[in-house]
Write a structure and sequence with these properties.
- The protein has helices spanning 3-12, 26-35, 64-71, 113-148; strands spanning 16-19, 22-25, 43-46, 59-62, 75-77, 80-84, 91-93, 97-102, 105-112.
- By secondary structure, the protein is of the alpha+beta class.
- The chain has a domain at 1-71.
- A three-stranded antiparallel beta sheet has the order 5-6-7, with no helix packed on it.
- The longest helix has 36 residues, at 113-148.
């Protein structure tokens, strides 16, 4: 890892402080000083994305699920989470995306349902055509071998 990469990685980490013999993230201390204790199971989100900017106006209390959605690039519109399809480029509600149901891929797949179905059809068609061409060439080779004997 080069010097530049280490520097960039350092910028991504949040600041920490030693409090009573334990290490605590600085943004948690700022939140508790201004707004009181952080409820069990809640997370603090840096609104502008800069983990080192710990001004109280840049901190937001969110659930872990909301925090994952925010960092995955989802947008909350009228109380419904939306995501951009990587194939067609449209922003659609999460209900329009198939979901991964196995660890570690917990979330929605990159393409919306119509685009995913079309990609599956295209893949199946390509495999079918490939098998047909292999069978056709295999039959010709068998005929050629049969003619020699």
């Amino acid at each position: 890892m080069g010097t530049f990469e280490r520097g960039v990685e350092r910028l991504r980490r949040c600041r920490v402080r030693r409090v009573g013999g334990r290490i605590v993230a600085e943004h948690r201390l700022v939140w508790e000083a201004h707004r009181g204790s952080i409820p069990e199971g809640m997370a603090i989100h840096h609104v502008n994305g800069d983990n080192r900017d710990n001004r109280i106006e840049n901190l937001q209390l969110v659930t872990p699920a909301e925090h994952r959605h925010i960092h995955a690039g989802y947008e909350l519109q009228d109380g419904v989470w939306h995501k951009r399809c990587r194939t067609c480029g449209q922003t659609k509600p999460l209900s329009e995306f198939y979901r991964y149901c196995y660890y570690p891929y917990d979330g929605a797949i990159p393409a919306c349902k119509p685009c995913h179905r079309q990609a599956c059809r295209d893949r199946q068609r390509a495999l079918r055509d490939q098998r047909r061409s292999l069978c056709a060439t295999g039959v010709k080779n068998d005929k050629a071998k049969g003619d020699r004997t």
